Amino acid sequence: MSHTLRDRPKLLQRVRRIRGQLEAIERLLNEEEDSSRVLQTIAACRGAMNGLMVEILAGHVRFHVLDPHRKITPQQTEAAEELINLLGSYLK
Amino acid sequence: MSHTLRDRPKLLQRVRRIRGQLEAIERLLNEEEDSSRVLQTIAACRGAMNGLMVEILAGHVRFHVLDPHRKITPQQTEAAEELINLLGSYLK
Amino acid sequence: MSHTLRDRPKLLQRVRRIRGQLEAIERLLNEEEDSSRVLQTIAACRGAMNGLMVEILAGHVRFHVLDPHRKITPQQTEAAEELINLLGSYLK
Amino acid sequence: MSHTLRDRPKLLQRVRRIRGQLEAIERLLNEEEDSSRVLQTIAACRGAMNGLMVEILAGHVRFHVLDPHRKITPQQTEAAEELINLLGSYLK
Asked: Dihedral sign, CA of B60, C54, A53, D62?
């Protein structure tokens, strides 16, 4: 079972949250709101998008760069988790 | 007429493009695609989101930080455009 | 007196801190350290660089996009500070 | 031989280029230059820093997440290079 299958509900939930934020942006633009609320909503939306990306990159590292069907040393696991943490902090 | 009104169609078009990309991501996640296509689509989507944000920030600088109803010196206009260019290159 | 003059000591202190971090990176690379400490140091260094950039952008907005010698409305000041806050959160 | 050893001269050269850019920023701040040249120099410096980080992350993925002493499948190599490409485009 691929990681996409396993984590799918969580990832889809993130995608739906981002869609909700985009709909809010669309509404704010249509209602001629001031740019300030639009900017805050889009900043939140961008954060959510980055969060989704980190989640998908993490799965990519754990299940595609590393191959769960082969032996993985503790050093490799550590290096992978370190990378994922860094991605999380860069893409905030 | 506020900038939001003037640029609204262009901004709404950007929002809709991003929604289309999100729907593609949702589809790819559901179809159990490999993470590689998902990653590419999300990278494109993030780029489009950054583009929308720069567009809205540019309007914020031109029409809210600067006040079009007051006298603006050429130096201020230049400083504003320089800032907008920098934002464009940082948020790519 | 320009903002650069006023904030100069604070900005120069930031620059020197970044130089110190770069020297640490150089040392770590020469000492054949593992990539993990290098990555952490460079992440800190990148954060410090972003902090410097936000500081300089803030001065640019407050003293060049806005012109302190001209009347500035409270709305403009608010829009400027909002922009600076957003830049701070994007460039973390 | 670790990747740090192998790529060291190239990485050190990057570090030195960044130090040169930081010295230029320090000079510009001391010379009371306008913020425009400072902003351009710091943007270039940030780009160089991101380039260094991608280089070090790439080595981390190729030589620590993947273990060159163990068998690596073509799929893993492909996934690793894809990740490195994405990091390069995100951290520009």
From this structure: positive
Asked if B39 and A57 come within 8 Å (Cβ–Cβ), the reply is yes
Shortest distance, CA D47 to any CA of chain C (angstroms): 10
Determine contact, residues D60/C35, Cβ cutoff 8 Å: yes
Find, among A43, A34, A71, A90, the residue nearest to B54 by Cα: A43
Contacts for B91 with CB less than 8 Å, ≥ 6 apart: B50, B53, B54, C90
Closest CB to D60: pick one of A60, A83, A91: A83
For D33, the token pair is 């230059």
- For residue A54, the 8-state DSSP code is H
Query: Which one-letter amino acid corresponds to residue A12?
Result: L
What domains, with CATH codes, occur in chain A?
3-90 (1.20.58.1000)
Q: Looking at this protein, which amino acid is placed at residue C23?
A: E
Q: How far apart are CA D49 and CA A77, in angstroms?
A: 27
Inter-chain residue contact B8 with A30, CB threshold 8 Å: yes
| Terminal alpha carbon distance of chain D | 29
What is the DSSP code string of C7-73? Answer: HHHHHHHHHHHHHHHHHHHHHHHHTT--HHHHHHHHHHHHHHHHHHHHHHHHHHIIIIIS-TTS---
**Type of residue at D17:** R
pLDDT in tens, chain A (92 residues): 355 556 788 999 999 999 999 999 999 988 866 777 888 898 899 889 999 999 999 999 999 999 999 999 999 999 999 999 999 888 77
Report d(CA B21, CA B12) in Å as an integer. Answer: 14
Whether A29 and chain B come into contact, CB under 8 Å, resolves to yes
Average pLDDT over residues D14-34: 89
Compute CA distances B29 → A11, B16, B20, B47, D1, whole Å: 8, 20, 14, 19, 40
If DSSP codes are grouped into helix, strand and coil, which group holds residue D92? coil
Question: Inter-chain contact B39–D82, Cβ cutoff 8 Å?
Answer: yes
> What one-letter code names the amino acid at B54?
V
Neighbours of chain B (3+ CB pairs under 8 A): A, C, D
